[in-house]
Write a structure and sequence with these properties.
- This protein has 321 residues and is an alpha/beta fold.
- The protein folds into two domains: 176 residues, 3-Layer(aba) Sandwich (Rossmann fold); 118 residues, CBS-domain.
- The protein contains 14 helices and twelve strands.
- The strands form three sheets. Strands 2-1-3-4-5 form a five-stranded parallel beta sheet, with helices on both faces. It has a four-stranded mixed beta sheet with strand order 6-7-8-9.
- The longest helix has 25 residues.
C-alpha cells in the first residue's frame, strides 16, 4: 500500500468520527441541561464508571471533572462488588458509560447505587438499552458506525462518549463560575499553573529603582542604564512616570548625535510608556512586552505611582512565557 492510500485511510477514520460528532451535537437536548443541573446541585461527588474502552473514557472524564473543580472518582464496576462500593454516598451523582448498555457488570453496579439513592446519568450508545432505561437521565451517544473498517473496535463510539463527557465537564464548571485562577490553584506544579498564578508583584524589582528627573543628562542616564539593566524611568519627583529611556534609545541617539552626554533625558525619553500593575498576570505582561518589543516596564500602583520595574527575562525565568 502506498503513502497516498495510507493517508486516505487515516482521513476516512477522521471523517467518520467527525460525522459521528456532528450527529451527537444535533442530538443533545434538554436531558443534557438536566444532567448539568444534577451535577451542579449535588453536594456529593461524581462517581464515574465504565468497562473496557468506556472505562478508559470514564477515567478521563473523572480526571477532567476533578481538575475543573468538581470532585469525581472513577469506580470500576468489578471492584465495586468487592468493597469499593463503600465510597458511594447518597448525595453522589453517578455517570455510567457504555456503548451497548447491556454490560452485566454495569447493570449490577446500577442496581446497587440506585438502592443507595444515587442519581444516575448514562452516556449510552443504545437509548433503548437496559442501562438507559434504569438511569435517571440518559444521554444519547449512538453512532452509525465505528471508524474501524471491521465496525468492531470502539472508535467512533468512544469519541462520542468522550465529547459528551467533555461537554458535561465544561458546562458544569462554567455553570459553577470556575475561573482561570481556580484552575491554576489545582495545577500549581505545572507550567500552566505558573502562567496563571505568577503576578508581576512576584518578580518585579522594588529597590534602587533607576529614576531620574527630566532635567538629568544622558551622562547620568548611561550610568543608570548600565547598572539597572537597560532602563531609566523619568519622573518629576512625585514618582509619576513621565517617560522611559532605554538602551535602544541611547543607541539610536548615538547614531546621529556625537555629543550625547549633555542632552537632557526629557529630549530622549519615550513619553507615556507602557506600564504594568503589580497585580497583573505575568503572562499578560509578557505578551505586551513581546508585542511591543519591550525588555523592561515600570510598575505602578492603582494611583499610577511607581512601585517597581519588571524585566522580561525575570518573567521568563519564572516560567510564565
Amino acid at each position: 500500500m502506498n503513502a497516498e492510500q495510507l493517508i486516505e485511510r487515516g482521513r476516512r477514520v477522521v471523517r467518520i468520527e467527525r460525522d459521528a460528532l456532528n450527529e451527537v451535537e444535533q442530538r443533545l437536548d434538554a436531558r443534557f441541561a438536566e444532567a448539568v443541573g444534577l451535577i451542579v446541585s449535588s453536594s456529593g461527588r461524581v462517581i464515574v464508571a465504565g468497562v473496557g474502552k468506556s472505562g478508559i473514557i470514564g477515567r478521563k472524564l473523572a480526571a477532567t471533572l476533578t481538575s475543573t473543580g468538581t470532585l469525581a472518582t472513577f469506580l470500576h464496576p468489578v471492584d465495586s462488588i468487592h468493597g469499593d462500593l463503600g465510597i458511594v454516598g447518597s448525595e453522589d451523582v453517578a455517570i455510567v458509560l457504555s456503548k451497548s448498555g447491556e454490560s452485566m457488570e454495569l447493570l449490577s453496579l446500577m442496581e446497587h447505587i440506585k438502592r443507595v439513592g444515587v442519581k444516575t446519568i448514562a452516556i449510552c450508545g443504545n437509548s433503548q438499552s437496559t442501562l438507559a432505561k434504569l438511569a435517571d437521565i440518559a444521554l444519547d451517544a449512538w453512532v452509525k458506525e465505528e471508524a474501524c473498517s471491521l465496525d468492531l473496535a470502539p472508535t467512533s463510539s468512544t469519541t462520542a462518549a468522550l465529547a459528551i463527557g467533555d461537554a458535561l465537564a465544561v458546562a458544569v464548571f462554567e455553570e459553577k463560575g470556575f475561573r482561570r485562577e481556580d484552575f491554576a490553584k489545582l495545577h500549581p506544579g505545572g507550567m500552566l499553573g505558573r502562567k496563571l498564578l505568577t503576578r508581576v508583584s512576584d518578580v518585579m524589582l522594588t529597590d534602587a529603582l533607576p529614576i531620574l528627573p527630566p532635567t538629568a543628562t544622558m551622562r547620568e542616564a548611561v550610568v543608570q542604564l548600565a547598572a539597572r539593566r537597560g532602563i531609566v524611568i523619568v519622573s518629576n519627583g512625585n514618582r509619576r512616570v513621565m517617560g522611559v529611556v532605554t538602551a535602544g534609545d541611547l543607541s539610536r541617539l548615538m547614531e546621529h548625535t556625537e555629543q550625547v552626554f549633555s542632552i537632557e533625558v526629557k529630549s530622549v525619553m519615550t513619553p507615556n510608556p507602557k506600564v504594568a500593575h503589580a497585580e497583573d498576570l505575568g503572562s499578560a505582561v509578557v505578551h505586551t512586552m513581546e508585542t511591543h518589543g519591550i525588555m523592561a516596564m515600570p510598575v505602578v500602583d492603582q494611583q499610577e505611582v511607581l512601585v517597581g520595574v519588571v524585566h522580561l527575562h525575570d518573567l521568563m525565568r519564572a516560567g510564565v512565557a
